[in-house]
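help with this.
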Amino acid sequence: MKTQADKLKELIKDTTKKDLKTRVIAITSGKGGVGKTTLSANIAYALSKLGFKVALFDADIGLANLDVILRVNANKTILNVLKNECELKDIVIKINENLVLIPGESGEEILNFADEMTLNNFLSQLEIFNDYDFFIIDTSAGIDKRVLMFLEAADDVIVVTVPEPAAITDAYAMIKIISEKKDIIYMILNEVSSEKEANNIFGKILKVVKQNLKSNFRLLMLGYVKRDKTIMTCSTKRELFVKEFPNIQVSEQVFNIAKKIAKISERKVLDEEKGLAKFFKRIFSGF
């Protein structure tokens, strides 16, 4: 007799190829308070302004607040979809012409609905994102089984840290664990005083990585964002700084990061299969 897990494994093998265009990117951090969610929202917006279609998924378990940052009301989440209380299209919130928000929910709650029928129904609804370029996930901070599940399933992982000893130590701990499943991880240095400081910190982390992690693993610096009071002011006002002040230095730094993400995606698109169906099948099978 086949168990639920066996059926889900069979379903994984039957991955559809309709949504290979969409690249799933998880943005995470070793600890809270490093600006991960603020960066996720601003990077997603920057990509949308560059002409890419972007879906931003709030998977910050216990602290889902992208709806607050984006100044929208999220009445239902992905959990309501899994409960068949509504369809996926009903929870999607339009932010601008190229950007939408998908309110998320706790992985523990999803566990209760991880069966073949629910998964099939959910995957059939992913067609609404077939023409999207990026599916960006704002995960919780820290090393948690639910967080690692999202990171392992994503096409790319970006780790955010700041120039504080505790944050750097936690970022390395996160990188060490993810490196067991990924050959490449990207890093963003946030709240740095200068490019020199960003490069120095990254250099020290990279040195430890090369000394201690597997030889074929690569840690690449995606970019940095300087410390700027405008970011704090915009966060307090629930505004995206790249939207309100697109020409200031920190906004240009975020746009540079967005452009690098786009180039990385272009290089990888011919090398591997990707897409939302594959991502969510991995998530469900993780339970």
User: Anything to note?
Assistant: The beta strands are 23-29, 54-59, 93-96, 99-102, 134-139, 156-161, 184-192, 218-226. The chain has 14 helices and eight strands. The mean pLDDT is 84.
